Amino acid sequence: MHLTRPRLLVLLGAPLLAAALSAPAAHAQPTASSGPVHAADGAHAGHTHMVGDCVVPDADVATSARGGRATDHRSITVAEQTAIEQRTRTILAQKYAGGSRPGAVAAASAGTAIPVYVHVMQAANGSGDVTATQIDRQIQVLNSTYAGAESSAAAATGFTFTLAGVDRFRNDTWHADGASTTYRSQTRQGGKNALNIWLVDFDYLGVATFPWDYAKNPGIDGIRVQYTTLPGGSEANYDLGKTTTHETGHWLGLYHTFQGGCTTTNDKVNDTPAQSSASTGCPEGRDSCTSLAGLDPIHNYMDYSFDSCYDQFTPGQSTRMAQNFSAYRA
Predict the structure, then answer these.
(1) Model confidence over 21-80: pLDDT tens digits?
(2) 0.85 exceeded by pTM
(3) What H or E segment, with its residue span, contains residue 282?
(4) 85 noted as active-site residue
(5) Which of 1, 58, 121, 282 is deepest in the core (most CB within 10 A)?
(6) C-alpha distances in angstroms, 130 versus 222, 232, 235, 267?
(7) Which residue among the candidates 150, 235, 247, 284 is catalytic per the annotation?
């Protein structure tokens, strides 16, 4: 992986080599605008992940990640995917009479309001802060993108997002995503249905956990997002808030559209055309799987296109998110 800023990675429960840590953490300091501020007792500088906090790969995907950086993720095997799908079907069959029929599950999840907790992880000198207006605009982007408001081809997923709380911390280690297991477990709020967003300054645009891993590691559940990607931020081509849309898609159980490459089962969604590798920019007419139907879904929020290129989830993705929310977050 590039050590600058690889883009949009996902977390899955499996061991990952943790970074060696040495420098002591800066203690969190309150500011006039902050909520409760916690000291990072025993934390260390550098990047770390708990055992069971792993980056998910997309096998058969080219090495360039969103923004042109290299990827850093292990393969998620077909066997793993198959086991997850079976587990989801079993849970839904137990929850709903008649099994896991998509219509019944989608109806059960329609109009689901997700509480959102935003944690602003500033450096000791205050860098990395975002305004209340930026946070409000980010929630608006989530609601717009999940309502299908950006394209006539977009699905209205039925999910809505409500800001439930904002807190701010001043800690150099946490700001740089160091001791991430510690800071997430100490600051996460809400239950399994609550989306926690940690705004940090790190080597990615975003990182997310999957819904089926909540039971194993509830304390780290949520998404970490590069703070400069919020609306009005400074991340060129990725400053419209759609990194958060993408990562929330993973949090709701979606894979990348290019997961699995040129296969008919690729991302486990029937109406997203197969894609051999991630897109960059907005390459209209790209067709990386010529033997299969459809052009690459470059406008899909689960590709790696520029924010300005994104404008849709598909009905199939909407159903999958509803199923996964019902199985693991309801």
Answers:
(1) 223 333 344 343 333 332 222 222 333 333 334 333 333 334 355 554 333 234 567 898
(2) no
(3) none
(4) no
(5) 121
(6) 19, 10, 13, 34
(7) 247
